[in-house]
């Protein structure tokens, strides 16, 4: 009558939605009452065998098959099975287990009690699952009491409410508590025993007994056990492997007690384990972990694993991040000192960007954007950046070069993340004021010389500085100043430019006044756009000074409280240069006394963009065939250094002038001529 034992539970389960157990019961009505009794008693005997742990062990698949057959016999047989099993549990506890425990020697009492509980609760769990399976066939079966709840109540009431058992239980706990010296084997055995007792007390809801007697002993034995285990681990495991095995042990312990004890106890045990295995020797262990080696060899997975382990250890991450500081400090120091004093800042800054890139990768991909890592390791940048006084200049030059016309490479060859790195480095400078002054000066030069790429790029840089550089309240005087400088250049100046254009249009159309040039003026506030080392005023040609005075008169109509200052060292001029070339045809004329040769010259015009100083120099050659450097210096009063630069560009860059003697170096003693063969 029994199904074949090799079939699984899922094979015999009836899953059809229209299944009706009453129809199946009609089939089993053909069997006699004696046969039906054998079927349900066979299942009951299997239930009993679970408590006695007899051999061979119960096949759970066969157990479910028998439960299926009993369900098909009808609801009444399920009730009979429930009552008989309940009576068996009462008999098992009252007539068998309690007398056994009372008569046991005290030295094995607790172990036998724990073993009896483990066997009992395992058997109850299996029978509960089987009855839940049977319940699915009979809705009325919900009225039957749950075996697990009922049985746990019976165990507590029958076993522990007996005075003899309770007295022996208390006495044995007191004996274990009084033991002061245990060897390794005894510590392990006693701890596992008390752990089982703790789980039993938690399941039986014996809270008073657990908190007053069992829990303190369990925590004490747990501490002793992991103290011994720590010493053993230190002998066996080294460096990174120590943490791997320690973490595996922590996970193993937590899995074993998870949901078997109250939350407070679980947390206290976790704290004990992490303290004994990790915290008490974390500094020494971290030194042997070769975090420096992991960083040098980009072993990010190992670092991430170590991070995940120490996340659950109070203070563990701080020790880990502190151990990384020497690597970043030494690496950064080698970068800034190796390149100290070099005129080329690119190597130094690129090395710092690479180091910051590694910092960012660790921050985002290994340490889950941990703020503690950002603060502890990030502060190391301040330590080595101050070792080279040229770093603020390097940073400023690096940004300026990337944002100048003709050298525009930053957004082509670098990602925006690189600019975030530069802003981060600037923020970590010990003397940020020097960098701020240099950056404001370089920005002023770009704006005044009109050599910045465009307003979008400048605003991109400002937004990045604002995001990285500003304080938590989003305030930064430096960011506010550079914002105002760009606003003056690209927004505030537009109004006066438009008015000046309208004024010139009126002069042209109504008054017929034609201006010899088109003036494009930028007005920047001296409060925000501070010029480094203001140069003395040079001698401005009359046509340029008249243009400035005319513009100043117009400006004063709209800005009565502001005074304009002309800065001729900035700005550019687009000039139209007229060139004369000698033709091949030569005409001769003769008169009575003299013969004359007339050479016809061709006229050609080219446009060239020069600086304001270069324009002043070229203006002198409208009335002179040649001039010496000393004469030009005297006539223009341009600062000597700036004049030499301007002459060099006119000779070698624009090739509008030639000089004698012919050589690379420009001197004031040289003589300059207009180049005829343009």
From TrEMBL:
Coiled coil: none annotated. This is Cullin family profile domain-containing protein. One of its GO terms (biological process) is ubiquitin-dependent protein catabolic process. The lineage of its organism: Eukaryota, Metazoa, Ecdysozoa, Arthropoda, Hexapoda. Transmembrane segments: none annotated. Belongs to the cullin family. Residues 420-579 form the Cullin family profile domain. One of its GO terms (molecular function) is ubiquitin protein ligase binding. It holds the Pfam family Cullin_AB.
């Amino acid at each position: 009558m029994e199904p074949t034992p090799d079939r699984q539970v899922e094979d015999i389960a009836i899953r059809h939605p229209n299944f009706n157990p009453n129809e199946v019961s009609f089939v089993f009505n053909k069997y006699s009452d004696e046969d039906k009794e054998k079927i349900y008693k066979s299942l009951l005997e299997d239930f009993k065998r679970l408590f006695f742990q007899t051999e061979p062990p119960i096949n759970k698949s066969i157990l479910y098959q028998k439960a299926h057959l009993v369900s098909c016999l009808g609801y009444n047989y399920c009730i009979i099975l429930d009552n008989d099993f309940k009576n068996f549990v009462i008999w098992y506890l009252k007539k068998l287990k309690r007398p056994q425990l009372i008569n046991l020697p005290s030295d094995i009492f607790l172990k036998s009690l724990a073993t009896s509980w483990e066997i009992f609760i395992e058997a109850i769990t299996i029978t509960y699952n089987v009855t839940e399976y049977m319940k699915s066939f009979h809705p009325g079966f919900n009225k039957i009491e749950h075996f697990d709840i009922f049985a746990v109540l019976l165990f507590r009431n029958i076993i522990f409410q007996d005075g003899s058992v309770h007295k022996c239980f208390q006495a044995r706990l007191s004996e274990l508590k009084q033991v002061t010296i245990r060897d390794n084997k005894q510590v392990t055995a006693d701890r596992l025993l008390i752990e089982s007792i703790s789980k039993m007390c938690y399941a039986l809801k014996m809270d008073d007994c657990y908190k007053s007697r069992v829990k303190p002993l369990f925590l004490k034995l747990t501490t002793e056990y992991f103290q011994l285990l720590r010493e053993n681990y230190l002998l066996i495991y080294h460096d990174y492997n120590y943490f791997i095995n320690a973490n595996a042990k922590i996970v193993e312990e937590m899995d074993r007690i998870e949901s078997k004890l109250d939350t407070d106890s679980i947390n206290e045990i976790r704290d004990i384990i992490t303290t004994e295995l990790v915290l008490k020797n974390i500094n020494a262990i971290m030194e042997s972990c070769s975090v420096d080696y992991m960083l040098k060899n980009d072993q990010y997975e190992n670092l991430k694993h170590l991070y995940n382990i120490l996340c659950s250890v109070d203070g563990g991450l701080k020790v880990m991040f502190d151990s990384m500081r020497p690597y970043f400090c030494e690496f950064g120091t080698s970068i800034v000192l190796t390149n100290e004093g070099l005129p080329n800042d690119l190597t130094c800054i690129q090395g710092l960007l690479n180091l910051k890139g590694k910092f960012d990768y660790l921050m985002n991909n290994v340490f889950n954007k941990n703020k503690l890592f950002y603060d502890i390791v990030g502060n190391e940048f301040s330590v080595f950046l101050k070792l080279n006084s040229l770093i603020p200049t390097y940073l400023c030059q690096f940004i300026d070069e990337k944002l100048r016309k003709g050298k525009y490479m930053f957004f082509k060859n670098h990602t925006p993340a690189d600019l975030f790195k530069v802003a981060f480095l600037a923020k970590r400078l010990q003397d940020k004021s020097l960098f701020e002054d240099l950056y404001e000066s370089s920005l002023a030069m770009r704006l005044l010389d009109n050599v910045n790429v465009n307003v979008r790029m400048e605003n991109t840089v400002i937004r990045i500085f604002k995001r990285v550089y500003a304080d938590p309240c989003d305030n930064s005087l430096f960011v506010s100043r550079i914002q105002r400088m760009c606003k003056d250049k690209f927004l505030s100046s537009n109004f006066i430019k438009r008015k000046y254009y309208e004024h010139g249009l009126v002069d042209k159309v109504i008054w017929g006044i034609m201006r010899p040039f088109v003036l494009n003026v930028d007005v920047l506030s001296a409060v925000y756009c501070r010029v480094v080392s203001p140069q003395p005023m040079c001698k401005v040609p009359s046509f340029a000074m008249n243009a400035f005075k005319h513009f100043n008169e117009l400006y004063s109509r709209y800005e009565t409280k502001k005074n304009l200052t002309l800065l001729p060292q900035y700005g550019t001029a687009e000039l139209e240069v007229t060139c004369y070339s000698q033709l091949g045809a030569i005409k001769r004329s003769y008169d009575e006394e003299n013969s004359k040769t007339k050479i016809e010259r061709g006229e050609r015009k080219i446009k060239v963009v020069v600086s304001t100083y270069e324009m002043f120099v070229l203006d002198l050659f409208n009335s002179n065939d040649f001039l010496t450097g000393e004469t030009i210096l005297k006539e223009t009063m341009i600062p000597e250094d700036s004049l030499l630069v301007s002459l060099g560009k006119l000779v070698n860059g624009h090739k509008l002038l030639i000089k004698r003697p012919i050589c690379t170096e420009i001197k004031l003693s040289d003589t300059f001529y207009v180049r005829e063969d343009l």
